[in-house]
Amino acid sequence: MQRSQGGFSLIEVLVALMIVATAIASMQAIASSALQAGVEANQLRIAKRLLRQKAEEVYAGLETGHAGTFEGYPETFHWSVSEQLVPVTGDPGGQGPVESVRLVTVELRYPVLRAADSVDPDLLAARFGDLDPAVLDRPGQMRVTMLLDPPEQAASR
Questions:
Q1: DSSP per residue over the chain, as a string?
Q2: With bands split at pLDDT 50, 70 and 90, how would you rate the model's confidence at 157?
């Protein structure tokens, strides 16, 4: 009479170990992606706040520089301001007096973790509803453009 032995065969144990190892590797990849997405979301939140702050400073005339970094933040957050005078006429026919306005662009560059071509700007804009897709030039760079009075008109107010 043959007695049945309890337990698992070596093949069964190896298959079970492979299933557990695959599950652990998958969970690690998901956790890593979630952490990376959280860091990217935080970088984007900081960049949006810094861009808004710098644009308000430029609009108020408090910022006269053309480039720099933000105090209290890593030097990887860079800003720059470009400006040009744009002529405009007083009436649609183009016969009125020609005046000019300042076209001011505030640009911010910030660090990203992924390669630039792996992040879709539309996806980021959809994920962060208050972000205007036109503001996001590409991951790691944002800009806002404003029309302002010429310096001599702004000073007279």
A1: -PPPPPS--HHHHHHHHHHHHHHHHHHHHHHHHHHHHHHHHHHHHHHHHHHHHHHHHHHHT----SEEE-TTS-TT-EEEEEEEEEEEESSTTS-S-EEEEEEEEEEEE---SS-GGGS-HHHHHHHSTTS-TTTEEETTEEEEEEEE--HHHHHH-
A2: very low
Question: Which residues touch 70 (CB under 8 Å, ≥6 apart)?
Answer: 50, 54, 77, 79
Torsion angle in degrees (nearest 10) through CA of 136, 141, 142, 143: -120
pTM: 0.63
Residue type, 86: V
Q: Which amino acid is at 49?
A: R
107-127 pLDDT tens trace: 998 877 654 445 555 555 555
Task: Single out the residue of 104, 22, 95 nearest to residue 56, CA to CA.
Answer: 104
